[in-house]
Specification:
- This protein is an alpha/beta fold.
- Helix content is 34%, strand content 21%.
- The protein contains 14 helices and 17 strands.
- The strands form five sheets. It has an eight-stranded mixed sheet. Strands 11-12-13 form a three-stranded antiparallel sheet.
- A hairpin with a 3-residue loop joins strand 4 and strand 5.
- The two termini are 14 Å apart.
- 44% of the residues are buried.
- The structure holds flavin-adenine dinucleotide (FAD) and iron/sulfur cluster (2 copies).
């Protein structure tokens, strides 16, 4: 499949891998969704074969993937906790790894300095940066892979933080580029329902009559979990709105969703070394925490070191905790097989999913679910047929 087909059929998830492998490809970071501009072939685009590699030695869960240990971890640093998305695990773990000189840097997504409603990708090398700039979920377009090429000029070991599609692309890149492979110590993945278009937050701000020129700072998940969208204005005033309003009523609307996200089996970011999400089962109690799926034993010593240093409060959790906390992601996977089947077989798009257990998951659905999900898949396919490319079409 050529890249123009991936983009024109709205199947590009904007990882940026193609422009990394072929620097002549321009990568657009304006418009609704990030995507490459040029007509070319990229046989490494993870869309052709979206593969999950098998990890042996571990427990396996059909819905959220393989795991070695499961935790609910909460940062003990009140400043990080108040600014991070869930339990501040990612920010505080990176803080610890950098301070202890276990890593030399981390590739992360942060707010763009001069346009805080947009994102920028940064390689953080100094733990002090995180004292002032706690990380949090950035619910707008981000392509962390575009920064990875800078590692080629750097010495040392790095952590990469990204969504399932980012990690899938990095996994491919590591196979074809040994230099990058040796620079990445491990990967941290975030659970992901979908990544809203650039227009989503712009429409929200317009709805609230907030002008971009007034904004000094914008955090999507500020304050006590699950947090608020918080805006600081240049005149010193502040605006805040509950995440529980902003996500379902604006950012999650289907018009802001990349079509490819509705076809994504990797909401739990199964190829990362650690995958992190929200403990939605604790919403009534408002108890913050990061659900942490440690995928393999290799990286457990780093986590143990952080736990020995008393950085987090830690609770062991079981698979049921994750399933109950992530019903939306579980249902997405339960619905996936007929969507994928229709798209692949009726539209003759030459792509494949490997290792995602979709047939086994489908078999576990009740008869009623199978009927319901098949009908939804049919509507999904109609949407695909009627869909105009979200990006400017390529020839
Ligand atoms: C688009 C999106 C969709 C999500 N969907 C879900 C969901 O369905 N269910 C769920 O439980 N959790 C979801 N999350 C993850 C959740 O919001 C938290 O990021 C996660 O729980 C980690 O929290 P934390 O406090 O440990 O991390 P924090 O300390 O808040 O750190 C957040 C980390 O996420 C990275 N990051 C932020 N935005 C992006 C981005 N756009 N692309 C790549 N990396 C990014 C940052 O670099 C940072 O390292 C989503 C996050 C995003 C960005
Ligand atoms: S999914 Fe990634 S590699 Fe494929 S076309 Fe889009 S940006 Fe390029
Ligand atoms: S839903 Fe999947 S494809 Fe979409 S941004 Fe999240 S991980 Fe990437």
């Amino acid at each position: 499949m050529k890249i123009n087909e991936v983009v024109n059929k709205n199947l590009c998830f904007g990882c940026g891998l193609c422009s990394f492998l072929d620097p002549s490809i321009e990568f657009s970071q304006t418009g609704d969704f990030n995507h490459p501009e040029a007509f070319t072939s990229c046989f490494h685009c993870p869309n052709f074969i979206f593969r999950k590699n098998k990890v042996l030695q571990n427990h396996d869960n059909n819905y959220f993937g393989s795991f070695y240990k499961l935790f609910l971890l909460k940062s003990r640093n009140p400043q990080i906790l108040s600014q991070a998305s869930s339990g501040g695990f990612i920010t505080d773990f990176l803080f610890f790894l950098l301070k202890a000189q276990i890593i030399d840097g981390a590739i992360v997504t942060i707010k763009a300095v001069d346009k805080p409603w947009e994102n920028q990708i940064q390689i953080i090398k100094d733990y002090k940066f995180l004292e002032k700039n706690s990380l949090h979920s950035r619910y707008t377009q981000a392509s962390p892979l575009i920064k990875v090429k800078e590692l080629l000029k750097m010495k040392g070991k790095y952590v990469f933080v990204g969504k399932g599609c980012d990690i899938a692309s990095l996994t491919k890149l590591r196979k074809v580029n040994p230099k990058i492979n040796e620079k990445i110590l491990f990967t941290i993945g975030i659970f992901c329902a979908h990544q809203p278009s650039r227009q989503a937050i712009l429409d929200y701000l317009k709805d609230k009559k907030i002008k971009l020129s007034q904004i000094k700072d914008l955090n999507f998940r500020y304050g006590s979990w699950p947090g608020n969208l918080k805006i600081k204005f240049k005149n010193g005033e502040e605006f805040s709105d509950s995440y529980l309003n902003v996500w379902p009523n604006f950012l999650a609307k289907s018009k802001y969703r990349n079509f490819r996200c509705d076809l994504c089996p990797d909401g739990f970011c199964e190829q990362a070394d650690l995958s992190i999400g929200d403990p939605w089962i604790l919403l009534k109690k408002r108890e913050a925490g990061s659900v942490v799926i440690l995928r393999n034993s290799k990286f457990y010593p780093y986590l143990q070191k952080a736990l020995k240093n008393n950085i987090f409060s830690a609770t062991k959790i079981d698979p049921a905790f994750i399933i109950k906390s992530q019903q939306a992601l579980v249902f997405k996977k339960k619905k996936m097989l007929p969507r994928f089947f229709l798209l692949k077989n009726l539209s003759k798009i030459n792509f494949s999913y490997e290792g995602w257990n979709l047939p086994q998951i489908w078999q576990q659905n009740s008869l009623l679910e199978k009927i319901k999900f098949s009908l939804i898949a049919f509507l999904f396919y109609l949407k695909f047929l009627l869909n105009k490319p979200a990006k400017s079409p390529m020839k």
